[in-house]
């Protein structure tokens, strides 16, 4: 008969952000540990509150499964003496494994001939295995920060106060954190603080529910959402959607009771973001909006308890909120006395980054870089971008951002409000408000054209400045948010389908730094920045589920430069790397990945690799141009004709980025290439002829390389195929 397991770790209140990641660890490591211990099980679930983390397993096997293991012993030469009799080395090995020397056999290993024996491990009862297994799971949980409270080196996020471990109704004596598990849990800290006896694993949730603890966080979340939505509807409005705040409140309480409060409508004159932040950041209140979308003068809070004394609790929360809104009103009214334009020169008193000047210097760089970007991406927005660039950091000097610590997350947003109130054009105000977007992988992108351009300028400047100052991210460390800024650039370019040469942009972003300090290692920094951008684009393609070989093939392409800015980014061969335009690189990688299902895909890859391998083996420098006059053999001329036809057909397709049509067009050279290899001796002894033939193959290869380096593609049968 299968069993049911409950394991609860009772703790002092955990930070709400710690609970869900810990539960995910607990469920994953619990399932892995049981599998490793050869204990079969059914459903593995977890439950959590601020005071408890629980593992619940159903369908647990009564004992470990048996296993037979081949154990290799000593080498044959030391296992037997000259007469073939077992030595002490062999008899000792057999005694340790509980077998007779006659049962061993000889096996060949990379180290030579050894003796081996099959050992049968009989599974132990699950109840005997669980104490050590569960103790290991509990003590290996990790948290952002941990503490010590015992005399040994035991660490956990907060002190562990009790352990419950039950296999059905039997206690599993798990030894951990200086405790031994029993069946004694605890109810709600205030509503039912006494110890609670858990009769069995199957009655855990019901027993705690009677002690005012909703231990299942999924049920608790549902109950909380139902309560806040009902209260908002009763007030004639709807809760402002905030899934993160729902999650926070879910793991702040064990017995949720929502209640509505109100504040004076006069505070609705403040910007919406200020009110929502005042409600959310410290008080964890939910904002409510009217059917028309405006904020209502009410909030909804969640209490960890029942509805007794709720009026007093409501009044206390309202008083605290009013104090915060009064602070916000003071900041707002004080800041309106200082228009953004009047603060620009004061930016000169604030250091941006060590060795890189002040925020005023940064504003000047953003003006220049913003115009440069606008000319290439959105010429009509150039003036708005330049004006917004000059003003976008002035809100860092404001009372709201500088003094109101809980409002620091509104940087940029408040700058937009101040700009509007000062009479700046809406395009300028919107760009200022949006220029920090996106702040993370799920944050919204700038919606306004000028906002997107200014965001690119700000992030490109941030990345360039960090590298110049030596603040290069390494490993998992990135204290200056350089990767985050770079990821934001890639997201804007890819998701908004903006075509930008990142190497050109990097050269422009670093230009002011190199002008200010000519001794900087220009070439080294540009190379490191190129490697960094390449890694960020790789990560972006990985996040979009692009196969690794299609990704590498697209990013290793060599794209012809066509004058202008592209020439700056071109290498010595007049080409640009395939990663240099992130959006274009993604499209080419996706097209190649989709073409994998086409039966022509593998022949195309093999065709390219055959050409590339011949060229890779060549050690002599090739002539700069092909001498068509000396191509005398029919197969040579046929390949030249096929190449010219493919160029003519694909040229407009490259211009239109019609990549799905290009791959089949390139494949039309297949017959001519095979004919060339079958009928032409490439590596002839005549050097001019040999090099000219290699030049012809190089031109075939280079046509493929305009979109993809197919040597990076793994086909069936190759190591690491996908």
Summarize the structure in words.
By secondary structure, the protein is an alpha+beta fold. It folds into five domains: 3-63 and 125-210; 67-121, no CATH class; 219-336, no CATH class; 354-551, no CATH class; 598-712, Isoleucyl-tRNA Synthetase, Domain 1. The chain is built from 27 helices and 18 strands. The strands form six sheets. It has a five-stranded antiparallel beta sheet, covered by helices on one side. A hairpin with a 2-residue loop joins β2 (44-49) and β3.
- The helix-and-strand class reads alpha+beta
Distance between the termini: 43 Å
- Give a short account of the largest sheet: 5 strands, antiparallel
Uncertain stretches of 5 or more adjacent residues: 563-570
Question: What secondary-structure arrangement, pairings included, does this model have?
Answer:
Blueprint: E1 3-11, H1 16-36, E2 44-49, E3 52-60, E4 67-75, H2 76-79, H3 88-97, E5 105-109, E6 112-121, H4 126-139, E7 160-167, E8 170-171, E9 175-176, E10 179-180, E11 184-186, E12 195-197, H5 204-210, H6 217-234, E13 238-239, H7 243-250, E14 256-262, H8 272-280, E15 286-289, E16 295-304, H9 310-336, H10 340-343, H11 359-377, H12 382-391, H13 399-402, H14 413-421, H15 426-434, H16 449-468, H17 482-495, H18 502-516, H19 522-543, H20 548-555, E17 558-560, H21 564-569, E18 575-577, H22 582-595, H23 601-617, H24 634-656, H25 659-667, H26 670-679, H27 687-705
Antiparallel strand pairs: 1-3, 1-7, 2-3, 4-6, 5-6, 7-8, 9-10, 11-12, 13-15, 14-16, 15-16, 17-18
Helix pairs in contact: 1-4, 6-7, 8-9, 11-12, 11-16, 11-18, 12-15, 12-16, 14-15, 15-16, 16-17, 16-18, 17-19, 17-22, 18-19, 19-20, 20-22, 23-27, 24-25, 24-26, 24-27
């Amino acid at each position: 008969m299968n069993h049911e397991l409950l394991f609860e770790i009772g703790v002092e209140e955990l930070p709400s952000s710690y609970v869900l990641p810990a539960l995910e660890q607990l469920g994953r490591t619990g399932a892995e540990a049981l599998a490793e211990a050869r204990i079969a099980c059914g459903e593995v679930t977890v439950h959590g509150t601020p005071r408890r983390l629980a593992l619940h397993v159903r369908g647990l096997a009564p004992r470990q499964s048996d296993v037979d293991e081949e154990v290799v012993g000593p080498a044959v030469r030391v296992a037997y003496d000259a007469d073939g009799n077992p030595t002490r080395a062999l008899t000792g090995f057999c005694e340790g494994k509980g077998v007779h020397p006659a049962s061993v056999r000889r096996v060949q290993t990379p180290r030579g001939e050894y003796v081996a024996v099959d050992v049968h491990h009989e599974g132990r009862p699950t109840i005997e295995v669980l104490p050590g297994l569960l103790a290991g799971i509990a003590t290996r949980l990790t948290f952002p920060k941990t503490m010590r409270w015992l005399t040994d080196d035991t660490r956990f996020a907060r002190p562990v106060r009790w352990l419950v471990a039950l296999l059905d109704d039997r206690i599993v004596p798990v030894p951990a954190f200086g405790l031994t598990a029993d069946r004694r849990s605890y109810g709600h800290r205030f509503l039912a603080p006494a110890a609670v006896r858990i009769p069995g694993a199957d009655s855990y949730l019901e027993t705690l529910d009677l002690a005012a603890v909703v231990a299942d966080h999924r049920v608790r979340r549902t109950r909380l959402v139902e309560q806040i939505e009902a209260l908002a509807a009763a007030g004639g409005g709807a809760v402002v959607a905030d899934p993160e705040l729902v999650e926070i409140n879910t793991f702040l309480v064990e017995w949720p009771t929502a209640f509505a409060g109100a504040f004076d409508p006069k505070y609705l004159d403040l910007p919406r973001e200020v009110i929502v932040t005042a409600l959310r950041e410290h008080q964890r209140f939910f904002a409510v909006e009217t059917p028309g979308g405006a904020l209502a003068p009410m909030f909804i809070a969640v209490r960890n308890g029942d509805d007794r004394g709720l009026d007093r609790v409501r009044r206390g929360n309202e008083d605290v909120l009013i104090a915060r809104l009064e602070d916000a009103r003071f900041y707002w009214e004080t800041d309106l006395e200082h228009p953004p334009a009047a603060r620009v020169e004061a930016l000169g008193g604030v250091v941006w980054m060590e060795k890189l000047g002040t925020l005023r210097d940064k504003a000047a760089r953003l003006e220049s870089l913003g115009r440069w970007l606008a000319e290439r991406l959105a010429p009509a927005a150039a003036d708005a971008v330049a004006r917004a660039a000059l003003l976008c950091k002035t809100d860092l000097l404001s009372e709201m951002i500088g003094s109101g610590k809980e409002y620091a997350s509104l940087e940029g947003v408040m700058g937009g409000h101040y700009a509007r109130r000062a009479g700046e054009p809406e395009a300028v105000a919107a760009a200022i408000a949006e220029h920090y977007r996106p702040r993370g992988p799920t944050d919204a992108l700038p919606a306004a054209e000028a906002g997107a351009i200014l965001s690119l300028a700000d992030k490109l400047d941030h990345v360039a400045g960090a590298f110049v100052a030596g603040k290069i991210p390494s490993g998992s460390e990135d204290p200056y948010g350089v990767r985050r800024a770079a990821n934001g650039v890639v997201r804007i370019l890819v998701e908004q389908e903006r075509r930008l040469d990142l190497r050109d942009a990097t050269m422009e972003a670093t230009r002011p730094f190199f002008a200010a300090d000519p001794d900087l290692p220009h070439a080294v920094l540009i190379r490191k920045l190129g490697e960094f951008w390449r890694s960020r684009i790789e990560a972006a393609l990985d996040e979009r589920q692009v196969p690794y070989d299609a990704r590498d093939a697209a990013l290793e392409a060599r794209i012809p430069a066509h004058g202008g800015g592209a020439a700056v980014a071109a290498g010595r061969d007049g080409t640009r790397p395939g990663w240099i335009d992130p959006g274009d690189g993604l499209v080419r990688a996706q097209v190649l990945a989709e073409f994998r299902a086409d039966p022509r895909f593998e022949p195309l890859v093999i065709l390219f690799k055959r050409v590339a391998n011949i060229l890779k083996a060549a050690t002599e420098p090739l002539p700069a141009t092909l001498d068509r006059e000396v191509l005398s053999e029919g197969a040579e001329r046929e390949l030249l004709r096929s190449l010219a036809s493919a160029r003519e057909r694909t040229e407009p397709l490259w211009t239109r980025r019609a990549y799905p049509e290009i791959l089949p067009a390139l494949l039309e050279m297949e017959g001519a290439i095979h004919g060339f290899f079958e009928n032409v001796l490439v590596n002839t002894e005549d050097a001019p002829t040999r090099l000219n033939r290699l030049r012809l193959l190089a031109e075939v290869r280079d046509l493929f390389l305009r979109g993809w380096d197919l040597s990076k593609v793994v086909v069936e049968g190759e190591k690491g195929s996908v």
